[in-house]
Write the structure tokens for this entry.
Amino acid sequence: MNKLTRQRTIRTAATAAVSILAVSLAGCSAGTTASSTDGGDSAAPRVAFVIKPLDNTYFGAMAKGAQQAADDAGIDLTVVAAENVTDDSGQANKLNSLVTAGYDCYVVNPTSQTNLLTSLVPVSQAGTPIVNLDLPIDLDAAKDAGVTVTTYVGTNNETAGAAGGEAMMNLVAADSQVAIIGGLVGDPGNIARLKGFEDSVDGTLTVTQTVAADFDKAKAKSAAATILRANPDIKGFFTPSGDMAMGIQQAVEEEGMKGKVAVVGIDGTEDQLKDIVAGGQPAAIEQFPYLMGVQSVQACEAAISGKTIPETVETPVLIVTSENAEAALEALPAPPAGFDVPNPFE
């Protein structure tokens, strides 16, 4: 769980239903901008949105959600993106340009927990709201740098991992042996997701092996094949990544274990949902980067208007199985119909 310490007074936000619609973010690529108003209306609040690479489906969905929320609220949104997930300095340079231009609120989805802190110092000194999206900023380092984060919006990774455990326990018999194929060993999100899963299944299932596959589909496939050959009693695999889930499922099928070994992965990518519909992997944990984008702009809207807002907003996750996979796929990247999420900043 992202345990973020803030020196703020938290007021419980009233909730109101919000309908989330999937839209296309036209013309927005790494290093470009997208405006929610045709003429760049100078009277409209201006929000800077600094994100990881937009050619990644996950982060692209965030930008789509942010643009939809900006359009709905009459906010002028500017989007810039890192070239890749390790483009620490490039992303910081793009943020620097936006800081120089001056915006009413900054949403930051950093490539690392500290790469944007220097750029955010003048933003914080000016008292401009900072919304931290998805990857949490290191708050100790932020405090040392003199940066105050207004609010954090993102998935609670331990909760997502626990949902994976719940799904797995519904798919395999009690006392079954399962294996975990993780991502990068030191990645905070990976660590939290694995912990959530392990805590959830503790006492019900036996985790016989945990290996790292660096969020790489091919490595995950190879690791799963090796585990299956060494331990034919394995009944399930958990992974914190949608891409790795696809690789693991390929290994399961190539080893002749389709329908006998359950694969549960977090993300709920389009490929995962299609695979569930086709009768491949039995479940996925869908998180909603689109909704993260929506809520980050809603946070800016509230902060700009002077509201006291929650220090942390956890976007929900959804267990997707064959029963709801088609509805989830049809609504992608937005949440499916009936999965209503209130605006936590109203």
In short: The radius of gyration is 20 Å. The chain is about 40% helix and 20% strand. The longest strand covers residues 206-212.
